[in-house]
Amino acid sequence: MALQVSSAGFSILAQRRRGSGGSLGARAVTSESVTTLKGDEKVKLGGSDVKVTRLGLGAWSWGDTSYWNDSGWDDRKLKEAKAAFDASVDGGITFFDTAEVYGAGMMGAVNSETLLGSFIKERRKTDSVEISVATKFAALPWRFGRGSVISALENSLSRLGLSSVDLYQLHWPGIWGNEGYIDGLGDAVEKGLVKAVGVSNYSEKRLREAYDRLKKRGIPLAANQVNYSLIYRAPEENGVKATCDELGITLIAYSPIAQGILTGKYTPENPPTGPRGRIYTPEVLAKLQPLIARIKEIGEVYGKTNTQVVLNWLVCQENVVPIPGAKNAEQAKEFVGAIGWQLTDQEVEELRSLAAETKPVIGFPVEKL
Ligand SMILES: NC(=O)c1ccc[n+]([C@@H]2O[C@H](COP(=O)([O-])OP(=O)(O)OC[C@H]3O[C@@H](n4cnc5c(N)ncnc54)[C@H](OP(=O)(O)O)[C@@H]3O)[C@@H](O)[C@H]2O)c1
């Protein structure tokens, strides 16, 4: 894989890490020829041995007909999803996030794990590139105990066509308690079915409980996957981000571009269709315009798009791996340019303050359940 990453971008990164933590006066100068990521830009997932790219790719929309794709899945969308996968791997983003419930249970839907598995299989015919897969266990009310985790995982592995996954996560907290599920995660590690385990939508309290329970078996809780973007900063306010940092748990940021809203393509005159349109109404979108305009201005200085700026903002928070979703190759290619450069500390803070001013009520606070 050819590497064309601006060394200036990396030197400013190094400078920032070496520095006292104060503001950098200079902007990172990046080359627009960034086409692939460097292998050594990988980060460890928490205390596990699994290394993934600084940015992953979310596969929720692949095959889904409940939230995405205007309720329809067809051959064209399949080809586009496959192209998104290939463009991502071509660009060096090789960490993919899926779940057993993505693309499941609805008329016309195709399971996202099945799709991802077929894309990996196809790719491996010609390419030995290392691909990291994360999937998730659905803590459905009728699933009890540790055994349910193993049987669900075995079904996921069968759909993916893999003998193990890099990261297995509890998708959301169980309503009857989580001890059995956490024990199931530990069993999965011991059986060699997963390389690392994590949770998702876990509050600070649940995170600490899960961490402690796994630690007794000598297993690190590698990640907590939560909703986190410039306009949904609950993890900064509810102790989740601080706890991840304290315990050495990677925060995987889902919906990092606020489901497309932060790209700037949706406006009060052109709101998103489907379920997103009920969250991001023209009123909400109108309030966001000053922030989106400023993101654009900052991006222009670097030759970056809004999408790249807001993903970079998340990476700047440290210990955060964003997993934006891409429906096509173009979207996936754009993510590649989100790293290999860095916003200044002043820009990071300015965007946070501006986002706080708009106070949008966005996202479903699953972590409060
Ligand atoms: N653990 C959980 O409970 C949970 C919950 C949600 C998501 N997730 C994970 O996080 C991943 C990402 O979250 P998400 O899909 O909710 O939201 P997101 O990544 O913030 O937004 C993805 C959507 O934004 C649009 N988009 C993507 N790239 C774009 C670009 N370059 N330019 C313009 N528009 C672009 C696409 O939709 P349009 O083209 O239709 O606008 C795409 O489907 C999911 O795939 C899933 O793996 C996990």
From TrEMBL:
Source domain of life: Eukaryota
Record keyword NADP present: yes
Keyword check for Flavoprotein: no
Any Pfam family hit: Aldo_ket_red
InterPro entries linked to this entry: Aldo-Keto_reductase, Aldo/ket_reductase_CS, NAD(P)_OxRdtase_dom_sf, NADP_OxRdtase_dom
GO terms assigned for molecular function: oxidoreductase activity
One CC-aspect GO term: cytoplasm
Alphabetized PANTHER family for the sequence: AFLATOXIN B1 ALDEHYDE REDUCTASE (PTHR43625), OS07G0143000 PROTEIN (PTHR43625:SF88)
Protein name: NADP-dependent oxidoreductase domain-containing protein
Organism: Dioscorea zingiberensis
